[in-house]
Amino acid sequence: MKKVYINSIASISAQKTFDHTTFLDEIIDHEAQVINVVNPNYKDYIPPAAARRMAKGIKMGVVASKMALQESGLDQVDAIITGTGMGCVRDSEKFVSAIIDNDEQYLTPTSFIQSTHNTVGGQIALELQCKGYNFTYVHASNSFESALLDAKLQLELNEENNILIGGVDELGDHTVTIHKLINHIKPEAVKTSELLESKTEGAVFGEGANFFVLSNKKQTHSYAEIEAVKLFNTLSENNVSQAATQFLKDNNLEIDDVDLLVLGNNGDVNFDAYYHTLSTGIFNKTQQVYYKHLSGEFNTASSFGLWLASKILKTQTLPEVVKLNHLPTSNFKTILLYNQYRGENHSFTLLKQC
Fold it and tell me: Can you give the residue ranges of the Beta-ketoacyl synthase-like N-terminal domain (predicted)?
């Protein structure tokens, strides 16, 4: 089977990550329960008339995909695979609200048409005129990893050569209100730099779009090699270390072979224990980083984690703002990513330096 490489990356997040010339040099320290993305200049990528008709999630996805394609040097890809937990939730809210407000009459179809989960993938295909494989995974907080795994399998088997993948989720007012009511969002505004010290339940929610061009052909500008991806729907806290050890063993690695551990801590006092099991246990002598204080928590936030790990591998630099511990590590060859949300949908992703 062929090897799979990340040939380009793009990120629109709550930080200025759309600027490729910097790597988390200037950090925005949000103080909120919910954080929105820092918008790039969408007019540089989408005609203003078209942008006005697009929901925020579609704009983020289309622009991030164009950024990734530009960096890859490609005009076309063989397939488009997206992951999203909530899809275009703002248009879903608009359509349902219109049904209620107008007593189910005189409804315009635009919001309904754009509310489906595969709208982003479809819009990207229309922009590129790509008639290849187009699939959207809606697997809660494993949505992006499902897209990643699908692309990896197709490239390994040489079914495709270049695949655009991405994770995208947007915030919706009504959905945010519901998450606050059920304590999935923190009850108080928290400074993102102090997220892990909050000691309260819930997370700081966010939104974003992170896209990658994957290929089975290594380029001089490739970021990383995707060695393996493993998903678990359920995994007990006691079995996390065993699962991580077995995952590494299956890929002929030991704990000491991991140069960097990327964790999805979100400050939820009820569920961060899954990460603490690894950070204070078998990986207590490994350099560790986290990222959801920068991006916020959303179903495809792990795609921001992959963006971070890819940048670290290529630049061989580790921004101070993401460090969970401080160990003398200067050379990064093997990175392990672990993510879960509220004790479910666990994922392990293994990256290696090209």
Answer: 45-218
pLDDT per position as a tens digit, 159-217? 999 999 999 999 999 899 999 999 999 999 999 899 999 999 999 999 999 999 999 99
Percent composition of the chain: helix, strand, coil (DSSP 3-state, to 5):
35, 25, 40
SS3 258: coil
Residues listed for the chain: 354
Q: Give the strand pairing for 344-352 and 287-290.
A: unpaired
* Distance, CA of 112 to CA of 120 (rounded, Å): 14
Alpha carbon distance 94, 140 (integer Å): 22
**Mode of pairing for the β-strands spanning 208-215 and 190-191:** unpaired
CA distance 339 to 326: 21
The set of residues, in sequence order, having a beta carbon less than 8 Å from that of 285 and lying 6+ positions away, is: 256, 327
A 10 A CB-CB count for 196 gives 17
* CATH architecture assignment, domain 224-352: 3-Layer(aba) Sandwich (3.40)
Looking at the domain 5-215, which fold is it? Peroxisomal Thiolase; Chain A, domain 1 (3.40.47)
Evaluate whether 303 touches 347 at the Cβ level (below 8 Å): no
Pairing relation of β-strands 260-263 and 334-341?
A: parallel
CB 251 within 8 A of CB 239: no
DSSP-derived pairing of the beta strands 162-169 and 79-83: parallel
What are the φ/ψ torsions at residue 323 (nearest 5 degrees)? -70, 130
C-alpha pair distances (Å), 130 with each of 115, 116, 191, 318, 334: 21, 19, 42, 36, 34
* Gyration radius of the chain's alpha carbons: 19
Same fold across 5-215 and 224-352: yes
pTM above 0.85? yes
- Residues 16 and 28 sit within 8 Å (Cβ to Cβ): yes
